[in-house]
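Example 9 (inverse folding). The structure is encoded as follows.
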């Protein structure tokens, strides 16, 4: 009895756990789940923390540098060929240094600050990239889900035709070939359902990659989807102008150019002197010494007075010659600066091309939605007319099956165009650097949640 009870409890917990994990998700919930548990975004956050620590490390070199040490040892000196002197003792010391002028340190500090700023921009870009990954993953799953819905509807419609044709055959109204043709189309529709299920499961697996959670399905588009206009940039002449100033990709490249410019200054600082304050305190104690004549028994050690030494002053170091290494570093930094400028130009061309492509996609998809809406209406009318023609003998079952497939294909294409329009809308915001939580919330309100 206890074993049966435990088994029942185990099954209950398993089912409840599965229902808690596998669930229907909307775009906003998927984004929040990904925000909580996305390794790439977490890595970008850690990189930002690391860069801040790098800046703190440089700042620490502006503060006094203190070293403490101790040593103990023995000494033997041969003053002449006739005698020798042995000694032993201990010493402790404290040394303090303080930078007054160090141009290399100043430049390194500036670079560390710029690297920290770069890590912030990179984090924002990682966040925006994650948002687009969520968008693409969600709507790819939705397209697969809608495709499965349409192929199932196609299968059901062909199945109904198959029942009707078999009934007509039994009454001698249609030839047996019509039944075979309808059965073949039904089998193909069943195969399409199997493949669509596979595509849907793979699309949902990508959502697991984003969040580490399982989902059974995604929320569909609202049946009363409003007309959505092509977005316009706020207060700017064009999306390209907005992208040039606000795009995270361009911000990263601008920061890399600034870093390269500062690297030149760092290399040039290798010619500059360094000036600092130095102070040292040494205390020798337990010092002993003895002198030994040849062929005589060594005497005992004699204690020496403890000795304290204090030094304080200013130290300067000037790199007079480094074998040409400093000049070569300057030249190398200049080359890397030119390289950064070229990469910045290349990145802008990529961003500009993608912005123009997204704008063209929006215009095309806007027109395509209207065309597909009309295609659905026409396909519905054509199917109705074909079914009526079948009743009076002017059309065949093959014509009816073709019209059925055309109707559900038009519905699938309409839904795909609506989804692609929303994705292109968000893609344009992403490229311009203005994709944010509200952008996703606006699209989420168009879902049936």
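The amino acid assigned to each position is listed next.
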């Amino acid at each position: 009895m206890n074993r049966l009870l435990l088994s029942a409890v185990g099954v209950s917990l398993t089912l409840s756990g599965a229902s808690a994990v596998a669930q229907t998700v909307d775009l906003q919930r998927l984004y929040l789940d990904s925000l909580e548990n996305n390794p790439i975004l977490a890595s970008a956050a850690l990189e930002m923390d690391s860069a801040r620590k790098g800046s703190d490390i440089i700042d620490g070199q502006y503060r006094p540098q203190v070293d403490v040490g101790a040593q103990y040892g023995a000494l033997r000196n041969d003053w002449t060929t006739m005698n020798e002197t042995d000694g032993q003792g201990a010493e402790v010391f404290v040394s303090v240094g303080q930078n007054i002028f160090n141009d290399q340190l100043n430049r390194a500090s500036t670079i560390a600050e710029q690297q920290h700023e770069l890590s912030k921009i990179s984090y924002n870009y990682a966040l925006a990239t994650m948002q687009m990954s969520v968008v693409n993953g969600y709507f790819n799953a939705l397209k697969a889900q809608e495709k499965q819905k349409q192929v199932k509807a196609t299968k059901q419609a062909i199945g109904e035709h198959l029942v009707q044709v078999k009934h007509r055959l039994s009454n001698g109204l249609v030839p047996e070939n019509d039944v075979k043709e309808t059965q073949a189309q039904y089998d193909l529709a069943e195969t399409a359902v199997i493949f669509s299920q596979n595509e849907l499961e793979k699309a949902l697996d990508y959502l697991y990659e984003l969040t580490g959670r399982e989902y059974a399905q995604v929320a569909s588009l609202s049946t009363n989807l409003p007309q959505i206009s092509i977005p316009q940039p706020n207060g700017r002449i064009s999306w390209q102008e907005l992208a040039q100033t606000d795009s995270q990709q361009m911000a990263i490249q601008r920061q890399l150019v600034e870093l390269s410019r500062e690297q030149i200054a760092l290399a040039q600082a290798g010619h500059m002197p360094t000036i600092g304050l130095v102070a040292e305190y040494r205390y020798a104690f337990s010092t002993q010494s003895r002198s030994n004549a040849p062929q005589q028994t060594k005497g005992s050690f004699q204690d020496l007075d403890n000795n304290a030494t204090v030094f304080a002053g200013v130290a300067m170091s000037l790199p007079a010659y480094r074998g040409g290494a400093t000049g070569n570093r300057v030249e190398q930094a200049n080359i890397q600066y030119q390289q950064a400028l070229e990469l910045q130009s290349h990145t802008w061309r990529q961003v500009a091309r993608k912005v123009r492509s997204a704008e063209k996609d929006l215009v095309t998809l806007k027109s395509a939605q209207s065309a597909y809406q009309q295609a659905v209406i026409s396909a519905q009318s054509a199917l109705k007319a074909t079914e009526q023609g079948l009743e009076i003998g002017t059309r065949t079952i093959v014509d009816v099956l073709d019209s059925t497939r055309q109707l559900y294909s038009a519905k699938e294409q309409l839904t795909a165009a609506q989804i692609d329009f929303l994705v292109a809308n968000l893609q344009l915001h992403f490229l311009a650097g203005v994709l944010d939580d509200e952008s996703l919330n606006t699209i989420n309100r168009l879902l049936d949640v």
